[in-house]
Automatic annotation (TrEMBL):
<keyword id="KW-0812">Transmembrane</keyword>
<feature type="transmembrane region" description="Helical">
    <location>
        <begin position="243"/>
        <end position="265"/>
    </location>
</feature>
<dbReference type="InterPro" id="IPR002781">
    <property type="entry name" value="TM_pro_TauE-like"/>
</dbReference>
<dbReference type="InterPro" id="IPR051598">
    <property type="entry name" value="TSUP/Inactive_protease-like"/>
</dbReference>
<feature type="transmembrane region" description="Helical">
    <location>
        <begin position="42"/>
        <end position="62"/>
    </location>
</feature>
<comment type="similarity">
    <text>Belongs to the 4-toluene sulfonate uptake permease (TSUP) (TC 2.A.102) family.</text>
</comment>
<keyword id="KW-1003">Cell membrane</keyword>
<keyword id="KW-0472">Membrane</keyword>
<dbReference type="Pfam" id="PF01925">
    <property type="entry name" value="TauE"/>
</dbReference>
<feature type="transmembrane region" description="Helical">
    <location>
        <begin position="116"/>
        <end position="137"/>
    </location>
</feature>
<feature type="transmembrane region" description="Helical">
    <location>
        <begin position="272"/>
        <end position="289"/>
    </location>
</feature>
<feature type="transmembrane region" description="Helical">
    <location>
        <begin position="179"/>
        <end position="207"/>
    </location>
</feature>
<feature type="transmembrane region" description="Helical">
    <location>
        <begin position="12"/>
        <end position="35"/>
    </location>
</feature>
<protein>
    <recommendedName>
        <fullName>Probable membrane transporter protein</fullName>
    </recommendedName>
</protein>
<feature type="transmembrane region" description="Helical">
    <location>
        <begin position="214"/>
        <end position="237"/>
    </location>
</feature>
<dbReference type="GO" id="GO:0005886">
    <property type="term" value="C:plasma membrane"/>
</dbReference>
<feature type="transmembrane region" description="Helical">
    <location>
        <begin position="82"/>
        <end position="104"/>
    </location>
</feature>
Length: 308
């Protein structure tokens, strides 16, 4: 049994699409990421054109993130004020990223650019998170318990102007760093078809100094609006959002996010970070491998021209 995707112009098993949606939704609720960094490469693998995969992935991110956010709101682990500041930068970044995406598309280099972005961003961020998480777990074992979640040392973030208090995160910092983080995530979201959580979560922890439990819900809050904005822009400019594909991914994502949120609440902060780091590095390695190995089938125009 297969279903035809009108925009992607391919036929795919609906059970496969639901499975992908559930898996990505599970990760969204567990780690506070939109899941686009995983779902877009998976759509590549099942034959979805890159432009359609990027646009439709952003749409699925909205549903899985919203489902996960509802669960975090019940637990009161969302900093709405911080999320709003991040959102301001995110919407501006998504606009800039969309301009860059359309420029690459006109040059015919959008497929290569998206895949290279995955390899570079995921590889660097995953490696840094993995090393930091391993060191944190080692320090916890040496100390005979969990590492204290005390305040980080004062840095450049605390020395900038326009400070405000974020009570849910127990922070008093400038609004400039959150806006900068949101802007960067917005650009990545538009170009790569992701929610940007794989960048947002480490940035909120290591740059802004937010507690991990609050980071997850706040990241989902910001991702919903940025990914939704990105989807609308792609639909209006490129007409590349496949509604049928999005529907199956949405259903799976909403279901998976509820289970992921429950499991994430049971794990320690260091465990969550190291699991996310491993997942990010696996995806980066797979995309990088696809760029380096020879394709199974080579197209040879000389044979076709010779026959004619």
């Amino acid at each position: 049994m297969h279903v035809y995707l009108p925009i992607a112009e391919v036929s795919v098993s609906p059970f496969l699409l639901l499975g992908i949606g559930i898996a990505v939704g599970f990760l969204s609720g567990m780690f506070g990421v939109g899941g686009g960094f995983l779902i877009t490469p998976l759509l590549f693998l099942i034959g979805i054109p890159p432009a359609v995969a990027v646009a439709t992935s952003a749409n699925q991110v909205v549903a899985s993130s919203f489902s996960g956010l509802l669960a975090h709101l019940k637990r009161r682990t969302v900093d709405l004020k911080m999320g709003s500041v991040l959102l301001c930068g995110g919407l501006l970044g998504a606009t800039v990223g969309m301009i860059a995406f359309n420029a690459l598309k006109q040059l015919g280099q959008v497929d290569l650019a998206v895949q290279l972005c995955y390899v570079v961003f995921l590889g660097l961020i995953g490696s840094m998170m993995f090393v930091e998480s391993v060191l944190a777990i080692r320090r916890a074992r040496q100390a005979g318990g969990t590492v204290s979640a005390g305040r980080r040392r004062r840095g450049w973030v605390h020395g900038m102007p326009f400070k405000t208090r974020f009570r849910a995160s127990n922070l008093y910092i400038s609004i400039i760093p959150p806006v900068m983080v949101g802007f960067g995530v917005g650009v990545v979201s538009a170009v790569m078809g992701v929610g940007g959580g794989f960048i947002m979560v480490p940035a909120m922890i290591y740059i802004l100094g937010m507690p991990t439990k609050v980071v997850i819900g706040t990241s989902l809050f910001q991702i919903i609006f940025v990914a939704g904005f990105t989807t609308m822009i792609h639909a209006a400019t490129n007409f590349s959002v496949d509604i049928v594909l999005a529907l199956f991914l949405l259903i799976g994502g909403v279901v998976g996010a509820q289970f992921g949120t429950g499991l994430g609440a049971r794990l320690k902060a260091e465990q969550l970070r190291i699991l996310l780091a491993v997942m990010v590095m696996i995806v980066a390695a797979k995309v990088g491998l696809d760029l380096t190995i020879d394709p199974v089938e080579h197209y040879n125009l000389s044979e076709f021209l010779g026959e004619n």
